[in-house]
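Worked Example 4.2. Consider the chain below.
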Amino acid sequence: MDREGRTTVIQFLLNGKLNQLTSIDPTMTVLELLRSRLRLTGTKEGCAEGDCGACTVLLGDLTDGDRLVWRAVNACILFVPMLDGKALLTVESLGGQHPVQRELVERHGSQCGFCTPGFVMSLVGRSMAAMGTQSVPVADVISGNLCRCTGYGPILAAGEAVPEARRDDSATITALRTITRTELLKVAYDDPLVGTRRFAFVARTADALAALLIEHPDARLIAGATDVGLWVTKQQRVLPTAIFIGDIADLRTIEETDQGLRLGAGVRYSEAWQPLARLHPALGELVRRIAGTQVRNAGTIGGNIANASPIGDTPPALIALGANLTLRRGNERRVMPLEAFFLSYGKQDRRPGEFVESIFVPRPKPGAVIRVDKLSKRFDSDISAVCGAIALRVEAKIVLEARVAFGGMAGTPQRARACEAVLIGQQWSGATIEAAVAALAEDYQPLTDVRGSAAYRLVAAANLLRRFWLEQAGEPVSVLELANG
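Applying the procedure from the previous section yields the following structure tokens:
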């Protein structure tokens, strides 16, 4: 590790050519780098929060020394140090000759054209079988791209017209092998605005991260930057010390066993999608509803937990399934139930120098009945108003086990313990469900915000329980009946 504060060179391939950067602000976004410094203006800024997809680029990671994995990401919330040792493709690399571009022209898939480069790069990623696109419908691939004027029909048709054709990456792989990637890269930057030196580290092993956090316990950990990116672009926050952990292979392991599924904290949503779906289909459907492809390709399972958002999508489902969390500080580890990690709004049971290492989700028991629901104003690429998860085990019409958890109903993702107590040991019936619904008011006192009122949230949570019962009883579900409670 460079402990003398020397500026380290960030190296990456940009459209096939080596780029080297020094004295770079560690929280400069890739979008700003491309447009303001490198004058590659094909990549557009629409929202600066990873929502509209106009800034979509393709990022290539060299894995195991011989395979390049491409993924579409949002340049507006991707920080420059996250490029180190990787390959970056912008719309300029296509030269106007890619089949996706030709199909969009032929099918009139563009009007004002502002969103078009982002759509092009997302669909090019699909044609290359990039991360998060294999066996995925075109509509899901472009769920993180928004268009205000064309209409999605021609864009969908253009994407469907281009068959998958894997890219010849041999030259890129050879070039990336020449770029040295140290265990811990250090970036130093003299900030003229605050008059101090800021630091960022790119850690590549869990051991390096553990040692670094002992030295810098207040450092901000950044995995995919899907949350922290908005702190910088929207809130203009300054991060004195940051540690980028998205390249730590130790934290990106996936282990499927008869006992359950263990996910390293750095596993991205797109990587966890199918393993979670194999554990239970409801989990796979939940991941499909998380943001868009670009965010799923960057955001991590551990990051969604460690930021302790009360409206994070995965915690309610993982809590309902009885997930455990492994935390690490130095060489010490401790394991806790996931629900115990969330103490209050913005506060977790995480000690100084400690980080989330992995999540273990037990395999559902035979006979378990599970449902996960996400309610949001928009189906794709939107934040939950309420996210609910129910896991029951019923034998001989008696509820033997019950775990119910909701997000968006309190300052943290939280189990509905009063509701569970009403269910356990009781006959599986509509009357029992109504008693459980009444108990929700003891478990939650939700807030009113832009996503929904407190009254709406309580009614919505109650109706999710009712719908669960009606579906399990084989009765048709009437939206009007649910609304009337």
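The chain has a mean pLDDT of 92. The first strand starts at residue 10 and ends at 14. Compare this with Example 4.1 before moving on.
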